Amino acid sequence: MSRSHVVLAALAASSLLACNVADTSSEATLAQPGESCVEDEGCASGLCQADTQVCAARCTSTCEGDDLVCFEGHCLAAGYCVEGVGPGCQPSTCEPGCAPDATCDLEAADGPECVCDEGFEGDGQTCTPVEQNPCLDDNGGCGDPALVQCDAELDDDDALIAACTTINPCLDDNGGCGDPAFFECSNPEVGVGHCADIDFCATDNGGCGDPARYLCINVSGDAPLCQITAACDQDYEVPLLEDTFISSLARDANFSSLPFLVVHSSFQTEGEENEFNYTSTYEYLAKGPHSSLLKFDLSALPNTGPVVNAALKLVRFDGFYCPLFMNCQFLGFTDALDLVDGSWSANALTWRHAPEVLQSSLASWRIAEGARSQGGRLYTITSAALTAAAQSLVETDADAMALSVSSTRGRSLYYSSRHSEADRRPTMTVTLRECTQHQVLPNANATVSTFEPDTPLGEGGGLIADRNRSEFYVRFDMSDIPVGTTLAGAQLQLAVTDVESFGGEARFSVDYLVDDVWGESSVTYTNRPDAHGRELAVFNLQQGDAPTLPETITIDSIHLFEAVTERFEADRSITLRIVATEDAATFAGRTHADATLRPTLTLIYE
User: 411, 433, 455 — which closes off a domain?
Assistant: First the structure.
């Protein structure tokens, strides 16, 4: 009998209790409280619970009834404990004992429990050392945790080590991206630095100026290129400030309110009075010399280049009637243009106070019509002298240009600024050359061919590009361009003298050679310099049974401009290579009889 059985039996005897419930009774009966247990053979278990006076039924693992547990083969209340025996009794220590690196916790909620000591982990029966995270101490030795992230990683021996990662690599030497003036480093995630070219063109057109005139081209690792996309010669219409006419026979009269200008000479033919009646159009009778004066505003012109042309436009609507018997063309009835002092006001100007002529005969134009041009005829007056006068005024920062229109033999009425139709009023157009176009001719060109790989072919009868068989080179020396020049454009012009089709699209391409050192009389297919391999431009020739020849090709591309600029800044020389992809063509070389067909590289700069 176990110790618990002895204790239970002893307790029953000392309390004068014994089992009196038949062994065949149900467990509910055996467990019924309030019965006196009598020690007899009727209580098969031989155990009587002293506190409840209930005979304990036998069990193997579980018991029926609330709060009953199977304890050493008998059903007892879960809280039952007598003299340290019963399911309700807590053990006084951890059994069967704890691991060396563990401690028995007697205060554990479920009774004494083995707990691994600090620095160890396990179930208390087995404890192993906890591996310390190296990053917990001084950020693993990685440095400032705001700049460097420490991560614990396993090494080859499965030991934890500190792995240091720079949080933002862009903070150190621009992340290795290069010069921060041209490259930017971004930090999309910890430890990652992304390099990119700075897009200068995205802001203020890269400093190139008006985007309608300049194209900004980003260049990796350098300042952007500015390519001129507009013509070098730009026209500007300068505003007409005021205009009027004066009469020698009305020396103190002012005519600034009239919508026309009068030009009248003192010349008269035999039997003709020196007067002309314009009352059919306007209530005015012209008699004696008249002059018309116009003043244009030059202050509005931009300071972007020299004046290369000045053109005055006048619309003549009435004037001298040329009789049929007169050869007006031969007699040369002309109106003329003079430069005058501009210190006058139209609403106060009279013949008596006519402005001083500063330069006479800037231009003249013939009036030789067979009848009055009452419908209005446009005269565009331009000359080298008029252009030079405009340039001189611009150079001296003059605010205005004043002109006088007179006549040697003619008589004319022109519309003035007060005319109701704006397109008939006088205008002045000044053309400024805002960039320089310098044409460079080649100093060498040659064809090379796989048919004769070791034979120098030179220019021969023309430069040939024939599929993968022949290609040609054209070298341009740019050393005549002034030092310090910044290029703003480059255009290549070639002339095709013959085309041979092999069923393709007549497609040709341009790139350039890595080395410009080659001889026109010595270069062959075998010893030819390497090509850069960067396609600068492509072009297609005319196709058909009878293409129009010669055909001039003008190539103006961003990549051509970039390559020419690169070679200009490096060696001031470039060799362009022309190849055919499917067909063949012959191009004029630098010694072609027609100089207008020779290859030309036009460099544009300001």
Answer: 433
Whether residues 25 and 159 fall in one domain: no
Give the separation between CA 146 and CA 70, rounded to whole angstroms: 62
User: Do 260 and 160 share a domain, yes or no?
Assistant: no
**Same domain flag for 411 and 341:** yes
- What is the rounded CA–CA span in Å between residue 401 and residue 297? 7
Q: Which of helix, strand or coil describes residue 430?
A: strand
Say whether pTM exceeds 0.85. Answer: no
Asked whether residue 366 falls in the same domain as residue 252, the answer is yes
CA atoms of 217 and 223, how far apart (whole Å): 9
Between β-strands 214-219 and 222-228, what pairing exists: parallel, antiparallel or unpaired?
A: antiparallel
User: 366 in a domain, yes or no?
Assistant: yes
Same domain, 428 and 465: no
How long, in residues, is the chain? 606
DSSP string over 48-103 = EETTTTEEPPB-SS--SSTTEEEETTEEEETT--BTTBSTTPPPSS-SS---TTEE
Rounded to an integer, what distance in angstroms lies between the CA atom of residue 402 and that of residue 346? 11
Q: How far apart are CA 502 and CA 499, in angstroms?
A: 10
Residue (of 411, 240, 246, 422) closest to 317 by Cα position: 411
At 91 the pLDDT is 67
* Burial status of residue 76 (CB atoms within 10 A of its CB: 0-12, 13-18, 19 or more): buried
- Which residue, of 38, 57, 77, is where some domain finishes? 77
CA distances from 138 to 142, 144, 155, 169, 172 (A): 8, 9, 20, 21, 22
Q: What is the dihedral of CA 577, 580, 584, 586, to 10 degrees?
A: -20
List the single range of 127-131, 276-280, 597-601 with lowest mean pLDDT.
Answer: 276-280
Same domain, 548 and 461: yes
3-state secondary structure 480-549: CCCCCCCEEEEEEEEEEEEEECCCCCCEEEEEEECCCCCCCCCCCCCCCCCECCCCCEEEECCCCCCCCC
- Do 514 and 387 lie in a common domain? no
Share of the chain above pLDDT 90, in %: 57
Helix/strand/coil for 201: helix
Q: Is residue 480 situated within a structural domain?
A: yes
Q: Is the model's pLDDT at 300 over the cut of 60?
A: yes
CA 434, CA 97: separation in Å to the nearest integer? 101
pLDDT single digits (tens) 554-585: 999 999 999 999 999 999 999 999 999 889 99
Q: Are strands 233-238 and 427-433 parallel, antiparallel or unpaired?
A: antiparallel
- Tell me the residue range of the domain where 61 lies: 3-77
pLDDT at 432: 96
Q: Are 408 and 260 contained in the same domain?
A: yes
**How many other C-beta atoms lie within 10 A of the C-beta of residue 600?**
21
